[in-house]
Design brief:
Elements (H helix, E strand, L loop, with lengths): L2 H27 L5 H12 L2 H11 L3 H26 L2 H20 L10 H17 L11 H31 L3 H6 L51 E6 L5 E4 H5 L4 E8 L10 E10 H8 L7 E6 L4 E5 H5 L5 E6 L2 E2 L9 E3 L13 E7 L22 E6 L9 E10 L5 E8 L4 E3 L1 E2 L9 E9 L2 E11 L21 E7 L1
Parallel strand pairs: 1-10
Antiparallel strand pairs: 1-2, 3-4, 4-7, 5-6, 5-10, 7-8, 7-9, 11-12, 12-16, 13-14, 13-17, 15-16, 17-18
Helix pairs in contact: 1-4, 1-6, 1-7, 2-5, 4-5, 5-6
Length: 503
Amino acid sequence: MRSRTYGALAGITAAAAAIAVAEAVAILTGAATAPLVAVGGVVVDAVPAGVKNFAVDVFYTYDKVALLVGTLVLLAAFAAVTGALAATRNRIYGYAGIGIFAAVGIVAALTRHNAPWYAFVPTLVGGIAAVAVLETTLRPKPSESGYTYEQRRWFLRVAGGTLAGAAVVGFASRWWATRRGVQAERAAVQVPAVSDSAAGLPPQADAQLPDLAPFVTPNKDFYLIDTALVVPQVSPADWTLRIHGRVDREVTITYDELLKRPMIERYITLACVSNEVGGGLIGNAKWQGVRVRDLLAEARPKAGADQVVSRSVDGFTAGTPTSVLLDDRDAMLAIAMNGEPLPIEHGFPVRMVVPGLYGYVSATKWLAELELTSFADFDAYWIKRGWAAQAVIKTQSRIDTPRDGGEPKAGPLVIAGVAWAQHRGVSKVEVQVDEGEWQRAELLAVPSVDTWRQWRLNWTATPGKHRLTVRATDNGGQTQTDAVAPPDPDGATGWHSIEIDVR
């Protein structure tokens, strides 16, 4: 075994020990203080919009997992280089590498939003563990001919055991840190009765066809897009909402106080601005909560406060037009989703739900503050990264069945999907087969204009390859454009098309 290879393996082993020990310490200090999470959070905040779009396109909702894996790979490469230098030149290279690792992790942890003063502890303790492991693994000195058989065996036992132990400790610690959250407190929440129930769901709202998205998206299937590398664990007992800024009266509300207020219940479809034409970053649920306009009325916004900045416990911000939150739509602080307390990953205990706007300007999870300000004075999280400050959800439609690339049998075939134009409503859906005439599809019933709408068309499929295209028209008479545009900066446009081969 050459000294360079020996040192590279020693460096990787030391880095693995550092990460594992830091994850274990973060059980006590909070999952967000772990160096991987802290550094990853800095990367997420600093990444340009184009890179973010690329990550979502390639990795979909697993973009954050890809980020953490990529960070580990880069760390392993850095550790291998510094370890090799420590073994072949001077031990100081290894210590310097660990010092750089620790400095980056400590700075990242301490600069995160609402970071506790002790956020540096996991990285510091992990760095000390790395020094100890590096010192131990590099202790044997090679002869002029290299390491002896006994030295190689000793090293492989030490390195192998350390790597295996680091994997177990690291993954177990991360699992425990998430398990020890607020699941029990969420389970204890009693969802209060509503004073204003959702309109009854028409029996014709859901065609219940294979592959067609159900009218109500189950919680476990609802899309997840946010900037949090670890899901914030917010205890209802500790939760408060502060309404401040350009208001005549600052308001602070506890969770118990919020639950005692009049509750509304509505079916509302939410959509992510990153959703490509025909994509799945959209879902419909029955939400329950307190109207935002009632809370703002108590705070009494001052003249010129045309933006409400909703702020998450982890520092994420979204800017919503004040006029939207004060109009007749049912924007709410949601406390329940499909009849149960908000799932933790969907913002428990409280999140924003605003019909008709993309989530990045309205749907803040783990809500902590509402600040009245103006668009001229403050740019929210994604606005600083080049996205539009105000983003109304565009009229869109999607073919769910048959599937793209499918091979259905010739004969009667149902073409079906969903269409949406939140807070305007969908009045017409048309389907085109190949280059033929547009055919009007049957629209299923909906409880309000704030939800998506299922549609279907009976077609006699003929053998051969066919291209199916769909377009929708909203209640204002505006048909969705066929101009193709990416999600950036305010939502994708274009018609959804699929190709099938009828047998």
